[in-house]
């Protein structure tokens, strides 16, 4: 390959590398955003209505991991809602349909091995704030007997609060 071929190939390759992400990004921009009112309705239903969640998810499957912004850094998914109110049946339904699980949901279900692993990996997670400022201890208490061991473990690590101010 001579110098001219090398430079031409390099310029073309570089141009493709620069253009490709822009083409992909512009195609992503064409996908419509979820309607914020529908997201809010879905997340709100996660506190109390499995039937509404099922209906909305059937109509809008991409809602599964949508988060509503309640303002002030208080983001909540439907799974987060079900988890902090202790609605295990709804939380399990969402998990069974591909919702992204998290440490709060694992706490609700008493998954002590998962909790210990996460806290070993990231000790500050002990003081993480879930939706509305609810702590891991709050979720463990909502889990009842199934998560009693997790609650005791969290307390043994010094966690006392069930809610932390978001601001």
From TrEMBL:
What SUPFAM superfamilies does the record point to? Ankyrin repeat
What domain of life? Bacteria
InterPro entries xrefs: Ankyrin_rpt, Ankyrin_rpt-contain_sf
Protein name, UniProt field: Ankyrin
């Amino acid at each position: 390959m001579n110098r001219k071929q090398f430079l031409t190939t390099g310029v073309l390759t570089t141009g493709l590398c620069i253009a490709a992400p822009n083409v992909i990004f512009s195609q992503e921009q064409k996908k419509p955003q979820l309607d914020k009112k529908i997201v809010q309705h879905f997340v709100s239903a996660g506190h109390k209505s499995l039937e509404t969640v099922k209906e909305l998810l059937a109509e809008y499957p991409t809602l599964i991991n949508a988060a509503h912004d309640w303002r002030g850094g208080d983001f909540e998914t439907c799974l987060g809602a079900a988890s902090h109110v202790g609605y295990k049946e709804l939380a399990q339904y969402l998990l069974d349909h591909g919702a992204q699980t998290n440490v709060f949901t694992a706490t609700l279900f008493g998954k002590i091995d998962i909790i210990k692993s996460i806290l070993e990996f990231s000790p500050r997670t002990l003081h993480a704030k879930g939706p509305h400022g609810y702590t891991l201890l709050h979720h463990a208490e909502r889990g009842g007997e199934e998560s009693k061991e997790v609650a005791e473990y969290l307390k043994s690590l010094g966690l006392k609060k069930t809610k932390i101010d978001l601001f």
